[in-house]
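Handout, page 2. Input:
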Amino acid sequence: MKRLSMSPDGGLTIGELARRARLATETLRHYERMGLLIPSQRTASNYRVYDSAAVERLRFIRRAQALGFSLPEVRELLGLHADSGADMGRVKGIVQERIAQIDARIADLQQLKAGLHALVEQCPGHGATNACPILAALTREPHA
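Output:
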């Protein structure tokens, strides 16, 4: 017997919402536990029912996550989006904080890359591995 994906009142079941959003139902349950997604109602048998706005909300969540925002940041952005009277300066501040995090990560990666380049330059690329300066560097104690 095929299970219906629409609730009797036309809302979306969690399975249908997951299918439309291309997410696992457990992901939707996790978002619900985090306060990112709220069913519009529950059926008499306690099934979650979502309205069509939930699809847009999930699109917002996925796009924000793709930009590297954490779920708490996404929750804050959703709250600001829902409050049409909120100050957009807070939204800009959140994005600026994210940019600063990205810049710091880029700096760390550039430093890591420079260190790897230095190791590659020390290695002749032939001979026995017991004389490999890269492997030797990996076994040395880090500087205190």
